[in-house]
Q: What sequence folds into this?
């Protein structure tokens, strides 16, 4: 039996299975033991018996055959808790499985272990909820893992599972990827179907994974991307995502380097690292920097947040306002405010500003092929933080973070967070954005950074 779960990427674990040097059952035993011993609070539910049975029957010829993976607790799996990370639904059980998870199992051969923690309804980009408490960053458990896919990021970077699912409606894959030193790919909107029973909402949410390597994220696309009729806004997949890495001619591509994108206030050390990383990429790939590109996305802020709360109210139904006291303070305040203030006039402003954001981003990609900025304006801050707060002489927290990631959600373009290095001993991600449907190009640029500046696949000292 292995003493620890696999500390490499998922693709190398499959290779080890196929060579006969390791078995899915051994790996599952090590995984379950590590999760039980972990102090990260990355998993909120573990289905050990089901996972062991699936590992024993694993088909290692499949892309993720026998690979244990975590499922974000906002994603339904038949028979598992369906809580939305909320005390309101603490006893609810899912009656269906999300299309992406089903594809990972059926097409990919991956083995779901359990659910990873998230913020309530995915409403905050931090790793705190009243149902399960605080999830720690794999690099320092006293720091935030980010969110809302914080548990997935902590589990993967913490050496518990090699890959886990995530969702991203305003940065919820990229923010925790940046904080935990992982690859976080937000594909073009619709790239991976969100069904069944997908809420359209304000059309910003995409789903995907938190991964240790670029090839793992691309392989996830190979398995999970592509149209499904239960998500009418999903798009076809050309396939060949992993095989396509290294096939793009990057030389001469135009790039805008804008570390402080939008209204974010970026820590100087983070800005310096992003610029250094961008200069390295420009030199290594033969990119061409374009100066003076205006990437000033019109602020959507309050109005956009209010529009997104309609889905929460739809889920709560008659339990609002009766169960208000069971919600986090932030979520209860948000729902009440949306009820009181979201009206036709605000809806018109959201539509107006979103159109302006689309026009701005389209104009940017008329001038360049890539935009490089920070993923998060800071390194991970103290874990209990749920609102902007003062740390030293700076105000840090969720509002400042989202300013860098939300633009790609509003406009639907693909964006990937890739580890760039460390600031004060904590991981910092660089975010690379491209025009719609250029997901494959982003995988290639990310892979180049991975080759030029390899990163630790798990946090030092993991599993924690």
A:
């Amino acid at each position: 039996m292995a003493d620890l779960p696999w500390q490499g990427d998922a693709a190398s674990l499959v290779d080890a299975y196929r060579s006969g040097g390791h078995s899915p059952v051994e790996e599952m035993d090590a995984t379950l033991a590590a999760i039980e011993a972990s102090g990260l609070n990355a998993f909120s539910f573990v289905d050990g018996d089901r996972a062991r049975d699936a590992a024993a029957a694993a088909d290692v010829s499949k892309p993720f055959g026998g690979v244990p993976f975590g499922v974000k607790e906002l994603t339904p799996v038949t028979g598992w808790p369906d809580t939305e990370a909320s005390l309101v639904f603490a006893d609810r059980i899912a009656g269906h499985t999300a299309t992406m998870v089903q594809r990972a199992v059926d097409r990919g051969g991956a083995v779901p272990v359990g659910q990873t923690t998230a913020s309530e309804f995915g409403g905050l980009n931090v790793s705190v909820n009243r149902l399960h408490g605080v999830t720690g960053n794999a690099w320092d458990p006293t720091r935030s893992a980010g969110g809302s896919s914080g548990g997935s990021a902590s589990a993967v970077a913490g050496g518990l599972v090699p890959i886990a699912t995530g969702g991203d409606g305003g940065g919820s894959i990229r923010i925790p990827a940046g904080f935990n030193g992982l690859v976080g790919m937000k594909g073009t909107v619709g790239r991976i179907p969100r069904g069944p029973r997908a809420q359209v909402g304000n059309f910003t949410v995409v789903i995907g994974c938190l991964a240790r390597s670029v090839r793992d994220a691309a392989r996830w696309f190979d398995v999970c991307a592509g149209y499904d009729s239960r998500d009418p806004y999903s798009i076809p997949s050309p396939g060949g995502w992993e095989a396509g890495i290294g096939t793009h001619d990057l030389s001469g591509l135009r790039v805008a380097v804008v570390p402080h994108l939008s209204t974010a206030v970026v820590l100087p050390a983070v800005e310096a690292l992003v610029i250094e990383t961008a200069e390295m990429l420009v030199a290594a790939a033969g990119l061409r920097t374009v100066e003076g590109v205006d990437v000033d996305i019109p602020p959507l802020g309050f109005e956009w947040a209010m529009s997104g709360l309609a889905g929460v109210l739809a889920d709560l139904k008659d339990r609002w306002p009766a169960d208000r006291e069971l919600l986090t303070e932030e979520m209860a305040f948000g729902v009440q405010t949306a009820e009181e203030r979201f009206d036709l006039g605000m809806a018109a402003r959201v539509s107006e500003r979103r159109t302006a954001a689309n026009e701005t981003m389209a104009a940017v990609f008329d001038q360049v092929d890539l935009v490089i900025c920070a993923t998060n304006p800071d390194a991970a801050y103290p874990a209990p933080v749920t609102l902007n707060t003062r740390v030293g002489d700076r105000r840090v927290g969720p509002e400042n973070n989202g300013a860098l990631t939300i633009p790609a959600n509003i406009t639907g373009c693909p964006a990937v967070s890739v580890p760039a290095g460390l600031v004060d001993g904590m991981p910092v991600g660089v975010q690379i954005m491209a025009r719609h449907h250029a997901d494959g190009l982003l995988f290639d640029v990310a892979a180049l950074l991975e080759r030029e500046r390899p990163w630790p696949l798990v946090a030092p000292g993991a599993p924690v």
